[in-house]
Amino acid sequence: MYEEFFGMTHRPFSANPNAAEFTAIGPIQDALESVLNCLTHSRGVAVVTGATGMGKTAFCRHVAHILRETHLAVYPTAASLETRRAFLQSILYELGADYLGLDEEEARLRLYAAAQESKRQGKILLLIIDDAHLLHGRLLDELRSLVDYTPHGEALFRIILCGQFALEETLADPSHASFAQRIGSHVCLETYSLEQSARFLIDRLRSSGVESLDDVMTSEALELICRAADGNLRCLCQLADHALLLAFAQECRPVDEETVRAAFDDLRDLPLPWGEISPATAHSDRSDAPINAEAVPPEMDGGQGVVPSPSADEDANVSSPIGDAAELSASTSDVAVEYAVIEVGAEVPRRAIAV
Questions:
Q1: Where exactly are the structural domains of the chain?
Q2: Cis peptide, bond prior to residue 254, ω within 30 of zero
Q3: What is the DSSP letter of 331?
Q4: Domain made up of 26-189: CATH architecture
Q5: How far apart are CA 28 and CA 41, in angstroms?
Q6: Tell me: the pLDDT tens digits for 27-51?
Q7: Which top CATH class is 194-354?
Q8: Residue 83, CB-side half-sphere exposure with 13 Å CA sphere
Q9: Which of 45, 123, 262, 293 is deepest in the core (most CB within 10 A)?
Q10: What Rg value do the Cα atoms of the chain yield, rounded?
Q11: Cα(321)–Cα(11) distance, rounded to whole angstroms?
């Protein structure tokens, strides 16, 4: 659609992003390292939880991509299954093995044989269970038996459970204590801060081949997307993608604040956790934690050195906390920048946001 218009090699905010291009920002990078450490060292089951729209599925697929040389990823559909036999058959189906007509024990033995064959070929089976908060309790018992299957003292299965916060309640139930004791890593994908949201958008735009960010999106438009999405990954992607589409349809380049507002009006009725934005300014009344200057990507400071915050007596028309679009791609060194956001007509200025 708009890729050629903006000089991109592919859509940066696709609903089904390439696993190789997953963007790990801040705490999500720490979560990624924790899960990889758990799986590669066979320390137990990895559990990934988070709110709807925080990229849990993309996170797990990125893990599988990183481990593709040593692990064979399998994605059984377990949420709608109630019996162990059906669950085992779904794994065999994903492996391309024969599963028809097998009873529960036969299916289990066939799976063990498939795991051993995969190991002989140099790959460990990696079972990624999405929507695990919907798993029936008896399937957790079956997963426990797979974790415990260690012929010759070596585990042949690695398991990731990925689900919403209800999964944490399920695992905390005393009836599943034996399974919970086999958890080696539990990470939670939390919503992004304003700064992390901006870094995510910038990284995705750059991964699509964008060289000059200010030719694609103004800093005001970038900030407005971040505030409207309120840290939710799905909201960020949908709003940014729709804004780019509207700009393409209107032959408007770069994407400006007005285009983002039009895109937000189109999407705000979707059942997503949107944030609130002011109809008059890109700066909402939401109270965000100060942006950590040390975590700001190099392209966000413009390489201009430390810029002092304007005082309340200065012109109220100050720069966006995220910075000018031209500055977003100008520098390769981390420099602390501090801006103050002052609301026109306000009695006292808002607190400074360090970027």
A1: 26-189, 194-354
A2: yes
A3: -
A4: 3-Layer(aba) Sandwich (3.40)
A5: 20
A6: 899 999 999 999 999 999 999 999 9
A7: mainly alpha
A8: 8
A9: 45
A10: 24
A11: 26
